[in-house]
Amino acid sequence: MANKMDSKKIEQGVRLILEGIGEDIERPGLKDTPRRVAKMFAEIFAGLQTLEEDLLKSIEGENHDEMVLLKDIPFYSVCEHHLLPFIGKAHIAYIPSGKIVGLSELAKALEYLAKRPQVQERLTAQLADMIMDRLKPRGCMVVIDAEHLCMSMRGIKKPGSKTVTSAVRGIFRSKQSTREEMLELIKKQ
Length: 189
Ligand SMILES: Nc1nc2c(ncn2[C@@H]2O[C@H](COP(=O)(O)OP(=O)(O)OP(=O)(O)O)[C@@H](O)[C@H]2O)c(=O)[nH]1
Ligand SMILES: [Zn+2]
Description:
Strand order of the largest sheet: 5-2-3-6-7
Oligomer: single chain
Largest sheet: 5 strands, mixed
CATH topology of the largest domain: GTP Cyclohydrolase I, domain 2
Bound molecules: guanosine-5'-triphosphate, zinc ion
Number of strands: 7
Low-confidence stretches: none
């Protein structure tokens, strides 16, 4: 069930953080910041407000049993350890068993899971599990490639480093050639 976002609480929190870092929350540039941040959080954490039942609705009457791959889907998520963005591309493949979905539905499912405090491994696995659960395909594979700003702009400071995660289900797990086909297709321009 989706939670209700409490923008007043977010505003109070932002005010406290600004005070905490020693800022003057009354100066003109910051006066509206708590309100703006609350509005932004509603957008970047919108996945918490979305109902999973509304996603990945299948298209009736289409019989396709070959691989479908939606690749190079850009996304933004937020690392739950530091609340800094991680940014990258996702590649989603599945082999239908009767049910196919509109392609935008795959990207919407990614958005739903990315727009919340996340960990890249969990995002990858949850997306694969959701596709398996909702579409009951013969298999699916999700590969995500992202840069974490908590690794780039602070801490270990390794800008440009990429984290690649994959989740492999069904026939993609049991059949190496299917997995390889997906990886080859991802590489192609
Ligand atoms: N596995 C995984 N780790 C992540 C992800 N995002 C951030 N991290 C890591 O989470 C860890 C959090 O480490 P902590 O030691 O609790 O916090 P910290 O002292 O701020 O960590 P540093 O980033 O190492 O300075 C760090 O190693 C981050 O690089 C992610 O999506 N997956
Ligand atoms: Zn982080």
